[in-house]
């Protein structure tokens, strides 16, 4: 099977009404998604940091913007937003970092979560070349919403709230591995969960009456 040619820039296949105008998507939602998912399982600090990396890794092809807008529209959602890259990247991370099996599965799931979020939240008509470089077919959704839609804002707020909850309850932030001092500084500014009040001790039994009384 011969590798497929790169698909045409996706904006050329969209109707004029849906023609995309370049807007750099902030990776913060993907970062928080990776962090929150990494806290679902019992992972090490390094593995949680790698969950964040796995969640943002597909956007490496966004560097094509350095070649201009046309290059960005042609290669973003193509070069790194595909199954081949996801499998290769996951295997590489697992081999180099010696991660657990459950962390490895989480990395691949987060890679695909990124693709799903992009299909739905990057704007109508901008799909994913999932089987590139073996097929140029682009997958998109008729239910996709505008990049500036309320759905993206709500998603970000949900992950942000979850992140704050993790920080308060588990005493760690996304900075725990890469910047532990800053992580500790942030935690000092957050409220500490109230400790569980120990159960009241039963009142001591009165001393037995002296014999003969």
Task: Provide a descriptive summary of the structure in words.
By secondary structure, this protein is an all-alpha fold. It has one domain (22-188). It is built from seven helices and no strands. It has helices spanning 28-38, 45-56, 69-75, 83-97, 101-121, 150-170, 180-188. Helix 1 packs antiparallel against helix 2 (45-56), helix 1 crosses helix 6 and helix 4 (83-97) packs antiparallel against helix 5. The chain is globular. 27% of the residues are buried.
Main sheet overview: none
Overall pLDDT level:
82
- Considering DSSP H and I runs of 4 or more, what fraction of the residues is helical? 40-55%
* Strand content bin: under 5%
Taken together, the total number of domains comes to 1
> Using DSSP, what is the number of strands?
0
Q: What is the CA-based Rg, rounded?
A: 25 Å
Distance between the termini: 102 Å
What is the number of helices? Answer: 7
Low-confidence stretches: 11-24, 196-202
Which structural category do the helix and sheet elements fall into? mainly alpha
Order of helices and strands: HHHHHHH
Shape: globular
């Amino acid at each position: 099977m011969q590798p497929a040619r790169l698909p045409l820039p996706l904006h050329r296949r969209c109707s004029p009404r849906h023609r995309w105008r370049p807007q750099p998507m902030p990776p913060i939602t993907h970062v928080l998604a990776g962090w929150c998912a990494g806290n679902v399982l019992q992972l090490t600090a390094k593995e949680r940091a790698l969950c964040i990396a796995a969640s943002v890794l597909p956007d490496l092809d966004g560097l094509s913007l350095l070649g201009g807008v046309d290059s960005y529209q042609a290669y973003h959602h193509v070069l790194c937003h595909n199954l081949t890259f996801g499998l290769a990247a996951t295997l590489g991370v697992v081999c180099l970092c010696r991660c657990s099996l459950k962390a490895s599965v989480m990395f691949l799931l987060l890679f695909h979560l990124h693709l799903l979020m992009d299909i739905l939240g990057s704007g109508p008509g901008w799909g994913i070349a999932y089987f590139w470089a073996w097929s140029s077919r682009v997958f998109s959704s008729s239910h996709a919403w505008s990049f500036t839609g309320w759905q993206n804002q709500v998603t970000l707020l949900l992950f942000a709230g979850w992140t704050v909850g993790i920080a308060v309850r588990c005493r760690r932030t996304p900075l725990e591995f890469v910047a532990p001092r800053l992580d500790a500084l942030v935690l000092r500014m957050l409220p500490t969960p109230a400790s569980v009040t120990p159960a009241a001790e039963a009142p001591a039994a009165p001393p037995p009456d002296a014999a003969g009384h």
